Amino acid sequence: xxxxxxxxxxxxxxxxxxxxxxxxxxxxxxxxxxxxxxxxxxxxxxxxxxxxxxxxxxxxxxxxxxxxxxxxxxxxxxxxxxxxxxxxxxxxxxxxxxxxxxxxxxxxxxxxxxxxxxxxxxxxxxxxxxxxxxxxxxxxxxxxxxxxxxxxxxxxxxxx
Length: 160
Known about the structure:
Elements: H1 4-15, H2 21-31, H3 41-50, H4 73-78, H5 84-96, E1 98-102, E2 108-112, H6 120-126, H7 142-157
Antiparallel strand pairs: 1-2
Helix pairs in contact: 1-2, 2-3
């Protein structure tokens, strides 16, 4: 996200998944054409990415089975380095044959888009289906990963 348009698009997509009012106001300030004293993108990015629970996956846990899904290359590349709610919108959109965009005023717009097959278990990951106790739609955390891994083990147990 090297140019300002990419940064604005990422912030609009991230806005919907953010619950902290201060961060929402900072994003609005950054996106405002009239505010000359807007916060830097780097500061906003760091705040958004670090504003998570203590249940966040560590780097070495991100390369484990509980953090893997099956997606076609186009879908996987389409959301790049987005946060979980933005990735979730891409997956839901591809499954519906829509492109779900967060507009300049944070409204959700659906337009016709490419459809892709999203395997049921991958769709369930992005719907947070495996963790019925989740209250964190903002990210895929360790509790979600553990619930997903338990489901994988229980499913495979039937065949072993």
